[in-house]
Each structure stands twice: as structure tokens, then as C-alpha cells.
Amino acid sequence: MINKLFIILLALSSCFSMNAQLNKIERKIVNNIDANTNQAIDLLKEVVNINSGSLNLEGVKLVGEKFAQQYRELGFDVKWIPGESFERSGHMVATHVRPNVPKILLIGHLDTVFEPESSFQEYKIIDGHIMHGPGALDMKGGNVIMFLALKALKEAKVLDKLSIEVFLVGDEELSGSPLELSKKDLIQSGKWADIAIGFEDGDGKLENANISRRGSADWTLTVKGEPAHSSQIFQPEVGSGAIFEAARILNEFYSQLSKETNLTFNPGIISGGNSVNYDENSHKSIAFGKNNIVSAEVIVKGDIRAVSREQLSHARKVMQDIIQNNYPKTSAILTFGDDGYPPMTMTQGNQDILAMYSKASQDLGFGEVFPVNPRNSGAADISFVADDVLMAIDGIGMCGTGGHTIEEMADLNCLPIEAKRTAVLLYRLSMMELK
Description:
The chain is an alpha+beta fold. Helices cover 32% and strands 24% of the residues. The model is unreliable at 1-19 (pLDDT under 50).
């Protein structure tokens, strides 16, 4: 990590005691958000109606340009990072850099899970404040919250107290390949930043935010056995067969690791028989065998999710140890894919920024904010930068339900609330003093 040390005056100052009220500037920020909320909702409607499924490269770029226009009007420098090298559209980055002030990385994404062939393409408003639309919750609403907060700071003439980089990823829902190229620029931004804030929807609840997320990585188990007639199974020269050995291994994975807090591992597909052919691109498997043949081969594909790199390393070691104690005449190989999405590990800095965010929320009259159980939300792009910043928080985007389904709903009443909490947090972060 870059050698960066801060004294957080915020936590020590009497102006942010438990009895604190919003100061004059903060009240102005809140008023600015109220004045701009309808315009922000119009922006959300516009971008929700633009299909930006991860593989719709032009649609993703068009949504990026819509936000780029907004940031140019705020005086940000804007660039588009092309995605040809990782087979996706690319990323939009808007920067507002000032010297000797805290460096804040704000993270969102432009793509959705709904490709052009989906039947779910346009928003509709339900009961006056519920937007039913593709990406309204995950996470075009979060992108609009981010912009609305920054616009309020600009109009209150306090934006220059921060260095801001807005990074809107173009392939969060379906990462490009290779991953190291897809996330290269985001990782570099994390090394620049002091603090990272993600505007994913988290668990969709207004009262919660993420300060820890589990990472996700793939694994493959390949088991070999001695093929023979089934009447000869368990004989010394035949042994137990590949299917029995695979069952032993999976059962031991369950027995030894299933009670680990926040760790999950899941065999998503299994194929076995006399021969197995698994296609990596289609994720389809063809197995050949008969009920009277001792199985010769099994392939199992799964994932593993851990809350820290240490937990992931421990689980991998346990799994590797398990595959060594083979049944007779069998062998097994366990391989892990790349690290995929790394975990966002709980740190003291993350707890500190949650406390600051919660305090801002309470001062605004919106109540306390609590940490999301990492089991209740998936991986996100903030995990690629969390190890390189002093503090990280995520899941402070739109609230709602039904993400990744055609029942996706976003509560528009949350938009100004989240923008106010974000803007006040950013303003208070601007009073961090670089040591």
C-alpha cells in the first residue's frame, strides 16, 4: 500500500459529537439535492431505458456517454477506456483532481444483466415512487446517486476540498477476459486513492451498507479410477472407482469446512462415468457409462467464496489435503482458477468510515446504518481496490428488490436520501488532514 497516514479530525472534533447538527454548509448541500432530485430522476429514467447488457457494447458505451456529459458539465475531466483487449465495451472515468486533499475513488458500473434479447427493456413507475426497470436498482440508480451528491457539493462550492475519481465499470455483471486486463485500470485507481466508496445496491436496504464482501474463485476436481466390470469393484486390482472417490472427497469438503463462518464452497456441476467430456465455453458436460461398469472418471466444477484472503488460503489447503487420502486405485487432482473477485476484508478503516456514514445519516434524521452480513451480498468491483485504500465502504446505492430478475424494483424515495448521506459524508471526509 502507498504510504499514506491520516489524522481523522472528524472523529475528534466536537462539531461531530453525538449531539451534532448539520452545519450551514451541510444544510446548503441538502437543499441543493432537494432542488436537483427531479432532474436526477429524469436522468435515471433516460439511462434505464438504454439497454446496456454487458455484451451490448454500444449500449454500455452510450450509457457511459450520458454520464460523461453530466460530469463534463460539473467541470470533470472525462475519458473512455476502450475494452477491446478484454472483449467488453470499456469503462468511463471522470476525474476532479486537486492537490493536498483526500483522494476519493467512487465506483459504479454501466452494464446490466439484461441483454437486448431480454423482454425487460423499459421502466415503468408503480405507486408514484417505485421504478420497475432494468438496472434501476443494480446499478444505474447508484450511479445517479453518486452524481447527484457531487453536483450538490459543486453548487455548495466545496467540491475543490476533495480529489475525486469516478470510475464507472463497463463489465461488472459479466467480466471481460482476461480479468487482469479488465480490472487493470480500476486497480491502478485504487492505488491512487485514499478512500474507496462503492454505490452498488448491497442488500437493497436503506439501513445497511457493506464494509466486507466475500471474494469468489472457481475450482475443478478431476478424479480417476480403474475401469472394470462392476462385479469386480473393491477387489485389490480394481479399487473403488472414480465416483465413490469423488463422493468421499465432496463429503469431506462438507464435513471439514461447512461450519466455517462466512465460507461457502459449492459443487455446481458433476459428471462421471467411463468417460467425461466437459466444454469450458458452454459449461455443458457429456458423460458415457453403464450401470455395470466401475467408473473411470469424474469431473466436478464449483466455486468457493471467502471473506478474507487468509480464509481462502486456509480452505484451499484443507481441500488439497482431503484429496490426498484416496480410496484404493483412485487419484484426484484439485485445481483452482485465478482468484476471480478478491474478498473485501473487514478492516478498522472500513468500520471507521461506516461509523462516519452512519453518523451523517443520523444527523440528517435518517437513522443508524448497519454493516451487511457478507453472506447476504455478492462480490463487487470495490474488492479489487479495498486492500490498497485506508477505508472502503460499498452498498450505499439505491434501495429496492429483485436485482438480476425481471422483477427489479428501485424505490425512488431512497435516491435523495442516499445522495444526502453521501454528500455529507464526502464533505466531512474533506476535513481529513494529510499528515
